[in-house]
Amino acid sequence: MERRSFLKKAGVGLAAGAGVATSARAAELPSIKWRLASAFPKSLDTIYAAAEIVSKRVAEATGGKFQIQVFGAGELVPTAGVLDAVKDGTVEMGHSTSYYFVGKDPTFALDCAIPFGLNSRQQTAWTYEGGGIDLLREFFKDYNIYNMPCGNTGAQMGGWFRKEIKTVKDLEGLKFRVGGLAGQVLAKLGVVPQQIPGGDIYPALEKGTIDAAEFVGPYDDQKLGLNKVAKYYYYPGWWEGGPQVSAYVNIKQWASLPKEYQAILEDACSHAHVVMQARYDVKNPIALKQLVGSGTQLRPFPNEVMAACYKAAHDLYDEIAAKNPKFKKIYDHWKKFRDDQLQWFAVAENRFDNFMQATRAATAKK
After folding, report:
1. Residue 286's pLDDT is what?
2. pLDDT score for 25
3. Tell me, what DSSP letter sits at residue 31?
């Protein structure tokens, strides 16, 4: 409470560990009001809330001098328009998953997730400490954007299906709502990918316009009511092992900020990054139990299907890299990092996790 009181009196401060400006300097700092366009509706309170966390933390750390007003999807621009709105300076900030924009350039997916990619810890490690952020910012600079990690959902689910998937043949002709590069991977196996906004998934499944749909995970999927219109819930979402959500800032607006405000904003995004993952890890287990308890049939994707998708994914990456030098530059760096991480996680993390799961299961049977 004493620290918060000091920050209010000083007029500006950085979040914990970043330092606090002197009162004299704080008095010189400008009052700034920005608008942030979110790609997510307010009803998806966990993923949308990350932007609100940023807004609140920035305001508190600056004594209200730097304010960011958050708008939900469609209030200022539609989900698909967030990147362009920031690029063109229509809004100062955006909050989105970058794989929404693979139609502009598949390289965007590497800022978020690609099929059979990194888990959330690995994605954070690559971005912050593995050299990823420098490569990504070089890419985003062409779009007049300064990007910052601002959330992660953790590994997502494989989606809701009206019929069981037992073999690769069952994918043929399947109309599946799926985003990012996953649709291109699945198309190689006969799936007909569909691009449908989150709010339209339920009626599309209910009417049979689509046969299956993926969104996020138990908590968000339950809020959309997808369990009421499809029986089978598959896992894992191999196309989103650790999808990172990003904050976008118009690069001219970023450059115009005082250094103190830049540090505060980066800190706020890092804080939101951690909180989003923590909230999903708390809420998803509860929601999954409720879904299964109400009749949802939980199913793992068969190994045959996973193996076919893995091959199709890497065939796709080779095809993209052969004709897209921007993708190749980042992908080659990312791939080496992924391979090293898989070796390390196999030594300690996976062994620990597998033992804990086996022990829990054995104990539960007694």
Report:
1. 98
2. 67
3. P
How far apart CA 24 and CA 29 sit, in angstroms, is: 9
CA distance readout (Å), 54 to 133, 249, 259, 274: 19, 13, 17, 12
Tokens of 170: 């069952």
Structural domains present in the chain: 2-154+242-282 (3.40.190.170)
CB 98 within 8 A of CB 108: yes
Using one digit for the tens of pLDDT, what is the confidence trace for 345-364? 999 999 999 999 999 988 88
**Cβ 233 vs Cβ 289: under 8 Å:** no
Cβ distance 102 to 108 under 8 Å? Answer: yes
- Average pLDDT over the chain reads 93
Indicate the DSSP class of residue 107: G
Query: Distance (Å, rounded) from C-alpha 283 to C-alpha 218?
Result: 8
- The helix/strand/coil state of 87 is helix
181 in Cβ contact with 302 (< 8 Å): no
What is the arrangement of strands in the sheet containing 297-300, beginning at the earlier edge strand?
Answer: 192-194, 175-177, 212-213, 159-161, 232-235, 297-300
For residue 30, what pLDDT band results from cuts at 50, 70 and 90? very high
For residue 14, the SS3 value is coil
Nearest to 243 by CA among 150, 328, 331: 150
| Residue-level pLDDT at 320 | 98
**CA 215 from centre of chain:** 11
- One-letter amino acid at 147 equals N
